[in-house]
Amino acid sequence: MACKTEKKEINGHEYSCTQLPASEAIKIQLKLTNILGESLGSVLGALVAKRDEDEDSSLKSALGSLGSKLDSQDFYDLFVKMINTCAKDGKRINFEQEFSGNILGAWEVFIFALQVNYQDFIDGLLSKAQESELLQKLTGAVMTSQASH
Questions:
Q1: What are phi and psi of 62, to 5 degrees?
Q2: Has residue 2 been placed in a domain?
Q3: Is residue 142 part of a domain?
Q4: 6 with 116: CB under 8 angstroms?
Q5: Block means of pLDDT (10 residues each) for the chain, length 149 residues?
Q6: Which residues are CB-neighbours of 6 under 8 A, at least 6 positions away?
Q7: Beta strands 86-88 and 5-10, pairing class
Q8: Which one of 36, 132, 133, 136 is most buried, counting C-beta atoms within 10 A?
Q9: In whole angstroms, what separates CA 123 from the centre of its chain?
Q10: Has this prediction a pTM greater than 0.90?
Q11: In terms of C-beta density within 10 A (0-12 exposed, 13-18 middle, 19 or more buried), how is residue 96 classed?
Q12: 52-57 long-range contacts, CB within 8 A, separation 24+
């Protein structure tokens, strides 16, 4: 399957993001998974929930947690690598020129890049997690019901 490109308007500009090749995407995904552990779940949940602008705060909170778990240089390298998969108004992004004084804009583009590159994985992982959560709730309800008899 070829790497796809998606477009999104962010702050009045059209950003396009092309997926990383599978080998590069897997390397980043493994790094995230190894470093983040439980924080990854909150990031994944926020990404899946991000269907409109109302979900920005939960995603930014989850990403803040992500950043606190990574070595700052590792996180910066990952952050810039993901942003570099994107273009603004058809032109390559110069990170320093584009985001000096616009740090929030950098986070918005980073989030978009994560969505483009990992949405299928996020959706699949969460559906498994949601199944597991439902099973735990059902098991808990049954045990509570049995204890009261």
A1: -65, -40
A2: no
A3: yes
A4: yes
A5: 89 94 88 61 57 53 60 79 94 93 91 86 64 55 52
A6: 16, 17, 116
A7: unpaired
A8: 36
A9: 11
A10: no
A11: exposed
A12: none
**Nearest alpha carbon to residue 28 among 70, 88, 87, 86:** 70
Angle at 44 between CA 53 and CA 138, to 5 degrees: 110
Angle, nearest 10°, between helix axes 103-147 and 38-49? 110
**How many domains is the chain partitioned into structurally?**
1
Torsion of CA 92, 54, 51, 28, to 10 degrees: 50
Beta-carbon count within 10 A of 67 CB: 15
Element at 104 (helix H, strand E): helix 103-147
Residue 101 lies in a domain: yes
Residue 66 domain boundaries:
7-147
Q: Residue type for 49, please?
A: A
Name all contacts of 70-77 with Cβ < 8 Å and 24+ positions apart.
70/35, 70/36, 74/31, 74/35
Distance CA(109)–CA(17), nearest Å, equals 9
Q: Which amino acid is at 67?
A: G
Is residue 1 in a domain? no
* Structure token digits, residue 58: 């939960």
What is the Cα 37 distance to its own chain's centre?
14
> Which position has the token pair 């240089």?
73
Determine the straight-line distance between the first and last CA of the chain, rounded to whole angstroms: 56
